[in-house]
Structures are given as C-alpha cells and as structure tokens.
Fold this protein.
Amino acid sequence: MDENKMVAGKVKKPGKRGRKPAKIDLKAKLERSRQSARECRARKKLRYQYLEELVSSKERAICALREELDMYRQWCSAMDQGKIPSEIKALLTADEQKIPASGGGGTKTSKNKNSQI
C-alpha cells in the first residue's frame, strides 16, 4: 500500500495516465502523412476551381447587368429629349396586342390588401 496514494478517498496507482502510444512503424506513419497531404492538396485544388468558376459566373452576370443599365440610361436620355426609343414602342405595341379590348367587363379584380382603412 506504500506505492498507492490515497487522494480524495480513492486509491491512486502510480504510472502514466491516458492512452499508451502504440508502436507504429515510422515508414507507415510517414506514408499516411504524405497521403493525407496529397488529399488535402486535392481538396484545396477543387475548392479553388469551384471558387474561380463562381467568380467568373458572377463577373459575367455583372457585365450583362451593366449592359442592361447602359441601355436603360440611353432610353431615359432619349425620352428626356422628347424621343421615344423604338424598343419601348415595340414593347408598348406588344402589350396592347396582349390585352383584349373587351371593355373590362370580364376581368377579375383582386382585393387590395391595404383596403382596410
């Protein structure tokens, strides 16, 4: 009982605590480390490829939106000068052809959500 110590009512045995290190072959350990590094590099490469594709798609979307904005700016400047762009005329005539001239008798009206005044 001399080698065992009493701590807080429990018998404590001498020696190291925890898991004992397994005797692993050094070459196998190095090979596992190399394989892990290869897998990590492959994951990193895939992640960067995905991010580069994402960036390029966003850049294409930005370019398309800038072109559309420029088109709208040109339309506005033309309308400020009193001219109606041909594109807007085409849109207006297309909308007029879609709406039938029935006098509005057969159309359904939706209730306005804010009509509770």
